[in-house]
Amino acid sequence: MTSAIKAITFDLDDTLWPLKPTLIRAETECYQWLQKNAAPLTDKFSLADIGDYRFKLFSSSAAFKNQISQLRIETIKAMAIESGYSEEEAVALSAEAFKVHYALRQQVNCYDGVESMLETLQKDFILGSISNGNADVKQTAIGRFFSFALSAEQLNISKPQAGIFTAALESINDCLDSPIVASQVVHVGDDFNCDVVGAKRAGFKAIWLTEDKQQPAPSTPYLATEDIEAAKHFSADAVISSTAAIVSTVNALQAQMYEKD
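^ thats the sequence. predicted structure below, dont judge the formating
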């Protein structure tokens, strides 16, 4: 069957694991590291101040739209300079602080059943990840199930732009003897605007993981007007409320494709 589903791509944060507790831990422990290694900075700035400063810096330049890691580095660098560090010292400090944060960022706790779900799907499908965040699934406990991992940082393109999904299709075809088309890929994600709209724009099928079936308000501060407008014209191929339903939903979509053939 030329139309059979051959690959599945996943969003990561809040799809395979909860983001908030991971970020809270990473930011708290990184701040504790700064307290030990950069007291002049933490004497001047609280943990909340760092978050506010980062958002202000993000809002000041479109260059940070797809570059979350660089944004974190530049935030600490700028705050270090304001705390009396030299440019050279600030560069070194921000790099070391980011290493601490990044290592903690990869220490995720997947939702129940995710590992067994991926193990099941890997038997029949190529699996990949597409993320706007800076988690690297290859550095997590479930990394072994993924043939590739793409991020907005790598490509300087973020969901819902079709380009990041097109890049995923290219990565999938690199794994196959015979190329497939976009409609043979299913994308799974929790964010309607980024995951569902982006996937459908690119010709993928989309499974929306959500507990609320109402289309949400725009989920990020940097969605373009055309992205927000596009959300009115797309819908998911399936809507589920738990990762436990992913395998059966993919199988149902596969059956529908066979029926059409």
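The first helix runs from residue 19 to 37.
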